[in-house]
Amino acid sequence: MTTNSARKRAAQLPPMGWNSWDCFGGSVTEDEVLANAEFMAAHLKAYGWDTIVVDIQWYEPNPGEHRYNDVADPVLDAWGRQLPAPNRFPSAKDGSFKPLADRVHALGLKFGVHMMRGIPKKAVELDLPVLGGDTTASRIADRGNACTWNPDNFGIDHAAPGAQAYYDSQVAQFAEWGVDFVKLDDVLHPPTQDVEIAAYSAAIDRCGRPIVLSLSPGKALSLAHLDELRRHSEMWRISDDLWDDWYGLKEMFQRAARWAPHQEPGSWGDADMLPLGHVGIRAHVGEDRLSRLTIEEQRTMLTLWCVMRSPLMFGGHLPDTPADTLELLQNAEVLALLGNQGSREVVRDHSLVVWQADLGDADACAVFWLGDEPADLEVHLADVGGAGRTGARDLWAGAEVPVKDGAVRLRVPAHGARLLRLE
Fold first, then answer.
1. Cis peptide before 191 (omega within 30 of 0)
2. Beta bridge partner(s), residue 357
3. Nearest to 89 by CA among 30, 38, 166
4. DSSP code, position 250
5. Could you tell me if 211 and 141 are in contact, meaning their C-beta atoms sit under 8 angstroms apart?
């Protein structure tokens, strides 16, 4: 048995990694997973990126490439648990993700999988037994609590005898495979699936491995759930799926401001994946493309995510990442802001947004300009918690910024950001 504290220790800083959803939807293959893992190990691991997550429907032999099939047909074991589709993951021909997890671990990285809440509809139709539960799938299924946008599962009736055993057996198998991270989906759309979340968390605590639990998605997520989210998970989405458009990024500012004061080690509000680089290859949204966000908008995204201490999960096919985007992912001084001691929005006035973060021996100041044309701004350090600071360094440019009369003068690009360390 693990403890919740062991899981929290595994996520003392916001997790950083790659997820297959934005580029490959539900159809990623083993070769594609390994290509991203090898690229991460070679180019990003030194900067803290260390988690590879296989997203939805890895158990489907023939998933829809740009949409879900109307009827799911997952590979299942005798106990109704999903197994990797061997036509997509050849090393799993014996029904285990362990060979792939071992290869990811050998690169010095962590291995994660996506799961839908509940029990496969196919297991219910076949009325398969539940390992350790002295019951069957049909007896624990909550047919009235199925996902509205994915065909895979029914919910679980946790009042039914033996229901907890299904999650216990599923997560125990993940532990045997060497899974380090689980993204549990369809639990935060209103109404929040509190019972399902608590049951899954309990299964992780019983599995003997400190698996980090990520909850998704977070459409209209209320702060009223904060205590339960902290108790049962290490990260939780604060938005619905985010894609590569400026409107979606701009809307994230209000969510970030609401959740940032509540971030703490082991418990992170998640502003969603970074839809950067080569996305849409076989995704469910949009065509095959490079991210439609400009490089300045990408810098704004990385700045906001880091200053608010959001987990960072890159969504593009890493080997195809443009050099200017890759450079953003390799800025150690910017990424270090994920370890700040607290941050908050201190100014919002029309197109101007300013954040302050406590770095212990210094302060960070992020100046965002949401307008459509560049702006020349004067920022008084006293307004950003930097009264008495005499030096400023631009962490993106790696250059000193003059401080005169307690203020800095900055030119900020359209939809752009300047990020300063104040000493």
1. yes
2. 343, 364
3. 30
4. H
5. no
As to burial, measured by CB atoms within 10 angstroms (0-12 exposed, 13-18 middle, 19+ buried), residue 200 is buried
Quote the tokens at residue 421: 């360390």
Give the strand order in the sheet containing 343-349.
343-349, 352-358, 363-369, 416-422, 392-394, 399-401
Query: Which residue blocks in 132-274 are alpha helix, DSSP H?
Result: 137-140, 163-177, 194-206, 226-232, 246-259
Quickly tell me which residue has 């671990």 as its tokens.
105
Question: Rounded CA gap, 333 and 241, in Å?
Answer: 28
DSSP-based three-state secondary structure for 25: coil
β partners of residue 17: 51, 313
d(CA 81, CA 166): 8
- Number of alpha carbons in the 13 Å side-chain half-sphere of residue 41: 16
Q: How far apart are CA 26 and CA 158, in angstroms?
A: 28
Q: What is the C-alpha to C-alpha distance for residues 63 and 297, in angstroms, rounded to an integer?
A: 33
Place of tokens 């001084």: 333
Three-state secondary structure call for residue 416: strand
Residue 102's identity, in one-letter code, is D
The span from the CA of 18 to the CA of 36, in Å, is: 8
pTM of the model: 0.97
- 59, two tokens: 């158990």
Give the total residue count for the chain.
423
pLDDT in tens, the chain (423 residues): 556 789 999 999 999 999 999 999 999 999 999 999 999 999 999 999 999 999 999 999 999 888 999 999 999 999 999 999 999 999 999 999 999 999 999 999 999 999 999 999 999 999 999 999 999 999 999 999 999 999 999 999 999 999 999 999 999 999 999 999 999 999 998 999 999 999 999 999 999 999 999 999 999 999 999 999 999 999 999 999 999 999 999 999 999 999 999 999 999 999 999 999 999 999 999 999 999 999 999 999 999 999 999 999 999 999 999 999 999 999 999 999 999 999 999 999 999 999 999 999 999 999 999 999 999 999 999 999 889 899 999 999 999 999 999 999 999 999 999 999 999
Secondary structure (3-state) at 19: strand
